[in-house]
Amino acid sequence: MSLVKPGSGHVFSGPSWDGSLAKGSNPDFWHGSTTGHSTPADPLVNGYAFIRWVKIPSWVREEYEQFADLFEKNFKSFSGLENFTLENGEMGSGFSSNAADFATTIGAKPKQFSIAHNEFSGSPMRAAYAHWVSGIRDPETNVSTYPKKYGIEYSDSNHTGEFVYIVTRPDADNVDANIIEFAAYFTHAKPTVIPNDYYNYSTGTHELGEFEQPFSARMHISSTVDEYAASLLRSRPTNFKHAGDFDPSAPHLL
């Protein structure tokens, strides 16, 4: 299956792109300056993204039922995406040093990612991550403890998860429309750190708890992933509370 196909949300086929705009018959796409009366194509605006868990180890979910919801609603950043680079080999012949490049391989997909979270009093995020990581390898003995405790066979499939990372247009709550700019499905995902460093102490320093959680995972992108991501947004939509929804008579939190 081709990685890219029309309507996939990749390479000139995103939600706001009309390929005909670049043709010479369109006078407003380029005429020496930015048009002031119509915009032939919308610029990509970053800063709108979601994560949806598809699979979490059963023994993690059993102890921390709120983990997926808290994770999805409390991620501040996602980092680790990298460009794919086509590698070339050089071949030359004859009496000169002239040579030509020929495709040899493409660089490996990234496999290390980081997700930043706010932490709350009681440390619910750290507790879940500590349970997950230490269950795979106990820091004291280096033994995997979840198989015996939960009666589960030791297997990579039993201690890794799957999630989807979705980047959308600014109309992020318009889930019935084609709003996805980019989507990636991550398999073989597991946290690799028990976060402790934000508990360090320094006199006179009082900061809110925030930490960056590294993950190891395999990334998959395709038109099929885009379609699956769209179905997740529709089936598990985020509840947005807009400014016009404010009700002065109702009780409110901060």
Uncertain regions spanning at least 5 consecutive residues: 1-12
Computed Rg: 24 Å
Q: What is the top-level CATH class of the domain at 46-82 and 108-238?
A: Mainly Beta
Distance between the termini: 49 Å
- What pattern of helices and strands is seen along the backbone? EHHEEEEHHHEEEH
Q: What is the helix content?
A: 10-25%
Instruction: Give the class from helix and strand content and strand pairing.
Output: alpha+beta
Largest sheet, order of strands side by side? 1-6-7-8-5-2
Would you kindly provide a brief summary of this structure?
By secondary structure, the protein is an alpha+beta fold.
How does the SSE layout of this entry go?
Elements: E1 49-55, H1 58-63, H2 67-73, E2 75-79, E3 86-92, E4 99-106, E5 112-118, H3 124-136, H4 146-150, H5 156-159, E6 161-168, E7 180-191, E8 210-220, H6 223-235
Antiparallel strand pairs: 1-6, 2-5, 3-4, 5-8, 6-7, 7-8
Describe this structure in words.
The protein contains six helices and eight strands, in the order E-H-H-E-E-E-E-H-H-H-E-E-E-H. With 254 residues, the chain is an alpha+beta fold. The chain has a domain at 46-82 and 108-238: Pnp Oxidase, Chain A, CATH 2.30.110. A six-stranded antiparallel beta sheet has the order 1-6-7-8-5-2. The protein is globular and about 65 Å long. Mean pLDDT is 87; it is low at 1-12.
